[in-house]
Amino acid sequence: MDNKELKEAIEQIAVPKEKVFSAISKGINKEGNRGRAKKKKVLAGVATAAALLGITVASGFVNPTMNRVLANTPLIGGIFQEFNDSTGVELANQDAVTELNQSITKNGVTVKLTSAYFDGNVVSITGFVDEDVEKGHNEKGEVSFDVNFEHNKGDHDPWLNGKSNDIKKVENGYNFQWKMVYPYKSFKENSTLPITIHNINGIKGEWNFDIPIQQEKNRTFAINQEQGYPDDEVKIRIKEILTAKASSSLVYETVEKYKGDDIIILKAVDDKGNVYRFGNQTVLEDSEQEDGYHSTVRTEMTKLNSTITSLTFYPQINVADPKVQQLLNIKSFTLKSTRFNLGLQVNDVTQKGEKLVIDYQLTGLPKNLSKGKLEIINHNLKYLFWLVDKEYLTKIDPENPWPPKNHGIPFNKVKMIDKATAHFQSTFDLNGEERIENFKLENAMLLFDFSSFVPAKELKPFTVVLPVGNE
After folding, report:
1. Chain centroid to CA 251: how far?
2. What is the CATH number of domain 97-214?
3. pLDDT tens digits, one per residue of 391-450
4. CA-CA distances (angstroms) from residue 99 to 79, 244, 296?
5. pLDDT tens profile 310-326
6. What does the alpha-carbon distance between residue 249 and residue 300 come to, in Å, rounded to a whole number?
7. Topology, domain 219-319+461-465
8. Where are the domains of the chain?
9. pTM for this prediction
10. 166 closest CA partner among 130, 123, 213, 125
């Protein structure tokens, strides 16, 4: 990608600065004290996603007939109306929500689970926690759960990938909803989901529940149509669409030359002009083959209209650029992006007591970037540098990449020195919460991520014909 293309791509992106920063802040705070590694994984992901590109939100699908549906919603549907969950409202109308009445009190805090549903690719659980939760560490109005499912532990629990949380203050406590992406390749129509809440707002307990989840067999439309993009060295194969009571799921496979490139489906439009939105994904398979890196995913989507004959898909590619690194045993050096014409010219590295200051310039950026884009660059630089003890580089978990505890610093404070020359300074706190024990410059590795400077690219839409009568 040359300088002109990069500038045009960046400048065409409408980024509402205050909303981006606000969303990042809310994303950081939403999980509270749920779990150390998971929180930081979200942090790093938000920094990359916000980047220069803005944020894509898939927080559920709003049915345009919602108001008419609510008029006939049974009592259990009220909780879904409260959380703007149109799928839950529709399922409540169909008597397809399991009502629960499981209540446990530990250390003075009562948790009651009130409903569960399993539809398409999503499992929802609603509940209530009483106001004694406010005796915990969180600010008033904030509730965070440290929870695991199926007796898994910590952040390696597959149910936590894509899990969302919503909290509403009510009389004497808080209502909450958890929505999880079903993490397995094959579905069980009837099963029990064990839940263990380890602590709430820092109040320890062991609130243990066994929740029945039920789903009738999905209707399956097999498609198996492939679209190639030779210039981008990627392919997409639409495999099948699964339809449940209130939602559908799309299963598709991608093939990429470069590991880490991410292809998502932004939307689909049917032959009648209806727009379909997509949500969270479950990775069903990952493999490296002769023709590239293969990934098969299942993603939630708006319920498929049964009368349509075709769908046009609108894909987008987010490219990955491997982190570059340099040992800080020298005071000046240049780092280059692996795939793009971008660089980092480090002018000076200075340790001042418990602070490390790196003076640098970004090279290869388009000239005359707007003030807003420069401010977003300035913001994202806080997250794009890592300092890691060189002996611990191999201990970074590729599934949840984060510097090892007490052996890495993933954040810094940024100062813009000169806009015209993209000149900045980053200051690392060597004695902060994230630190490197026995820090020495000659043992510290600087890692830098160029990926967030490369805008996402929308690929050419393609159309698939839906089979008739396949089930």
Report:
1. 19
2. 2.60.40.1630
3. 999 998 877 788 889 999 999 999 999 988 999 999 999 999 999 999 999 999 999 999
4. 11, 19, 34
5. 999 999 999 999 999 99
6. 4
7. Immunoglobulin-like (2.60.40)
8. 3-55+321-453, 97-214, 219-319+461-465
9. 0.74
10. 125
